[in-house]
Design brief:
about 200 residues; two-stranded antiparallel sheet; two-stranded antiparallel ribbon; 9 helices
């Protein structure tokens, strides 16, 4: 069972920490969330992946949606590693297709609809493998002490955002991207994935 309130309370506490401590706590939380998320994804059978939820998407499409956001965040992480202070993901630009073509979206809903349509005909195994690879790679990029360091995340531009309609934070956008990545896998789609953060 997911403890949403506990999750967001924990995020608020982590956000208030100095950068070095914040990095360590987010790295621990992200590792825990990714381990549970990946175990849940691996346990989904092809039949379960084909099941349709209340919003009309199959479980496979929901997992694919998470995987594509993880992929997009990997691209943003690359930009931040190169010193970019406002990665293009923040304006729905800079998404790179597998053939190298760059794509811009009108916003989050456009991104989601595009991938839901593309993934409707993909085999579950392909979506599953992308989800596992992307979640793991992104977790390593953020947590590795020599990659997206606290100093590098602190150098990104300031951004105000609201989580769960009640927690408003203002912090550098690099931290925001890390927090929403964790939130996406931990609590946003728990009903579809069958996994949730329990604290």
């Amino acid at each position: 069972m997911t403890d949403r309130a506990g999750f967001y309370q924990g995020i608020a506490e982590i956000a208030a920490l100095p950068p070095q401590q914040r990095h360590g706590r987010l790295a621990e939380l992200h590792a825990d969330v990714v381990a549970g998320y990946c175990a849940a994804v691996q346990a989904i059978s092809p039949a379960a992946a084909a099941r349709t939820g209340p919003d009309g998407r199959s479980v496979a499409q929901v997992i694919g949606h998470i995987a594509e956001w993880d992929r997009y965040s990997i691209l943003a992480a690359g930009e931040m590693l190169a010193g970019v202070t406002w990665p293009r993901i923040m304006v729905s630009a800079g998404f790179i297709e597998r053939d190298g073509a760059e794509r811009k979206f009108k916003g989050v809903h456009d991104f989601n609809a595009y991938h839901a349509e593309r993934q409707a005909s993909l085999p579950w195994e392909q979506i599953r493998d992308l989800a596992l690879r992307s979640a793991t790679a992104l977790q390593v990029l953020f947590a590795h002490p020599a990659l997206l360091t606290p100093e590098l995340l602190e150098q990104t531009m300031s951004y105000q955002f609201t989580l769960a309609s009640s927690l408003t934070l203002t912090m550098p956008v690099g931290w925001y991207l890390w927090i929403v990545t964790i939130e996406h896998e931990a609590v946003e789609h728990v009903d579809e994935v069958g996994w949730g953060y329990s604290g």
